[in-house]
Amino acid sequence: MARIGVFVCHCGENISRTVDTAAVAQALGEMPGVAHSTDYKYMCSDPGQSLIQAAIAEQKLDGVVVAACSPHMHEKTFRRAAANAGLNPFLCEMANIREQCSWIHDDREAATAKAIDLVRMIVEKVKHNQPLQPIHIPVTRRALVIGGGIAGIQAALDIADGGCEVVLVEKEPSIGGHMSQLSETFPTLDCSQCILTPRMVEVYQHPRIKLLSYSEVESLEGFIGNFKVTIRQKARFVDESKCNGCGDCTKKCPQKKIPSEFDAGLGTRTAIFVPFPQAVPNIPVIDRANCLLFKGRAKGKKKDVCGICARTCTRGAIDYDQEDRLVTEEVGAIVVATGYQLYTIGKIQPKEYLRGYGEYGYGEIPDVIDGLQFERLASASGPTAGEIRRPSDGKVPKTVVFLQCIGSRDPAKGIEYCSKICCMYVAKHTMLYQHKVHDGQAVVFFMDVRAGGKGYDEFTRRAMNEGALYLRGRVSKMYRDGEVIKVVGYDTLSGEQIVLDADMVVLATAMMPQLGIESLAQTLSVSYDQYGFINEAHPKLRPVETNTAGVFVAGACQAPRDIPDSVAMASAAASKILSLFSNAELSREPMVAHVNPATCTGCFHCERVCHFGAIQRKEVRDRQGNLIKVIAEVNEGVCQGCGTCQATCPSKSIELAGFTDAQVFSAINAIFA
Amino acid sequence: MQELQELAKKLLSEGRVQVVIGYEAGAHGVRPAFVTDAADCGRLIFDPRCVHNLAVYLSPRRSPVKRLGKPAVVVKGCDAKAVAGLLRESQIKRDDVVLIGVRCSGVLADPRSGATLTGETVADKCILCDLHEPTLVDHLVGELRPPLPDMPRVSRRDLMLERISAMSPAERWAFWQAEFSRCTRCYACRQTCPLCFCEQCVADKSQPQWLETSPHPRGNLAWHVIRAMHLAGRCVDCGECERACPAEIPLGLLYRKVAQIVEARFKHRPTEDPEVPSPIGKYSLDDEQEFIL
Questions:
Q1: How far apart are CA B73 and CA B93, in angstroms?
Q2: A479 in reach of chain B (CB within 8 A)
Q3: B239-258 per-position pLDDT tens digit
Q4: Quick check: B281 contacting A, CB < 8 Å?
Q5: Is residue B149 domain-resident?
Q6: Closest approach of chain A CAs to the CA of B143, in angstroms?
């Protein structure tokens, strides 16, 4: 006969208010196989746990059921307590009589009866529990960081400084991300590139960081501690080992009028180019779509039409026949830090649910620009060398209107969330503008000023004090009228309609995850929300982990983030990874599926339904080596214990440890008995 | 007929297969034949009495057949779908079997009757047939006869299902209870099914026991519902289970209903393509989940 101990918790009054806990303890005490049954005010408290541990020793219990809250809350607590008393922790289970009973019922009598049933179910289950041992898996102490913006840079440096190797993959020709495009940063107005570029160089020179720029993650296999990632190194057409970054090729390139991505379309670049002077690595890339030679080849011309860059290069680094290369890296953990892009107000949108802004002319008015374009105008390294000049005619604008919440907080335009950084950078923009154009007037249309953060509210107030005119309301219409832009809005504080003649309008457009984030998330098997932001494992307690063990998240690919947030997340992810790497092996809960090799028929329904790719094929051979059959096998490192295979298996040959058919059957039978 | 016999002879004499599994005339109509000698190929026939789904002999669990060596098997369209099922679920490899497809214009509902094939005598599955010429095969023999002039437009089972769905739940329950009460749990339905290939059937599992094994209405219902679920989207409607049932339970009716549900919900119909997984063995992020509240 089993000797099971039942411990009914009052949870202060959370349970005992609706459930007669003493009656539950008494009813269970009379159940066959229950050797000890008691109730207590707070089982999770130190005395409560001691109660359990004492009973395990005195009553020689071989199973424990704690009737309390959700196992999500305290299963670990009670299993640890049981383990400390010498009982295998997996012989301890919880019956949830709080969330699933006391919190949702009013009728005390009925709730008590239900609580008794719930506990009886778990008691019957525990009778069939088996002692389980944690699984140990080896760890490759090497990390992959996807994205070379400030979050990726910070994560890579922290992990590398912690003594582990890092592979940093960046999609663009240079690391630096959006931060490298910014002029100054809030709330201190220090120069963005001045603080960023030393970090970029540090990455490049770090002995433990392998930088793969102009590369993308192609596929991923494996599991926590043992990932194998395939990375596509896109063809640069420049041999990295030969190029010394002299820049002669870019000067001679005849294609000079290509809009520069780095300057947000306000400046130009050549077809062979380095995105910006401080780029890391300082190695050019040939833009195939705009290069005369490749255009000629695409048209099928036999003789190459250009080739000036190759002739100019004294080191013979230009290689027009270079092809994409696939490299494989083995890593133990992954940081996703792919950053953001901005909402575009145009008619054509990247996602179906986005609407664009017809009332602002769908982005057709040349002097209506977005925040990143303003950053380039204000930046000393930008197309105007830091002078604020409007794109259409190069004149210095005397009235600049800033509009907040463009796309953000606007369900009608497809995005409900707040982009978080716009209030701050608009305040910064008004200051940068008025510092550079002394007789200029900055006008801001805002919904709310959200400036939570150290020194943030002081910063927005400073912007207002320095002369920026803040109007609370939205702009309903914008159109060109000669040289000016008519801005029609409404000031909700004075209750007046306002029509302004603006020389330039800057839109604080919403922050959205990078295009292609969904396919990357699917490659990595991490979940994402309706907008494509990567989901964290727990919004409060596990903010930098994802649902897939070993994959972490940092920066604006998880939600709108400013630089301090992104850096903090990156360092948090790095410290998580370093703690993961601090052991040669990692141990995990043994709730994984097991295949019965005797009855497995090898139909592989399980393989097809497993979302995690945990099912492998295993050959069964006799002693002579003849193949008898091929059956399914579970990779314990990959299995997440979801149980889908168990439900699917027609011959019932897969069972999840801790949730075997015998256990679940007994629990169900307990309520019908 | 001659074409089939000559092909079988060629396959056997060239040593490409060791056994040809086909049909021969027997004491009570037609029966499966296992021809291992090229000289015996004259026994092989194919006519509307050849209802049996010979794909059942390809299951790796049929060791007496397996011992005969590499087989060639005669398949109609519905049988070819069952072979595709075995390929899809990794029970056989395509190179381990030679498939002799036969063009089939329909088979008899009652093969013992020896009646001529008419709209009256044709098997119900043939009214629904969408595959008269199997394409998964290595060889294709026989001739396609013109469609029966009096072929019913609607399947007899579909008409019956309409009547059943018009019943009240209590009537429906009574109808199936009456049918299942005759079940003796002989498991002929399972043994004759080419896709019931589990090494250990859930019905035989005792630790824990999933269903009562004695022929009791409760266990009978559980058995037939479990089997219907396991065949959902997999059943090729060869009709062998119903033909094998000594208690004459209209199993085809039950599986037809499940097939209708699967087709409506998952846009899936079992085909000859081994690459298309059945919904029971498939997971997709786009799966409908409106039932999750």
A1: 14
A2: no
A3: 999 999 999 999 999 999 99
A4: yes
A5: no
A6: 35
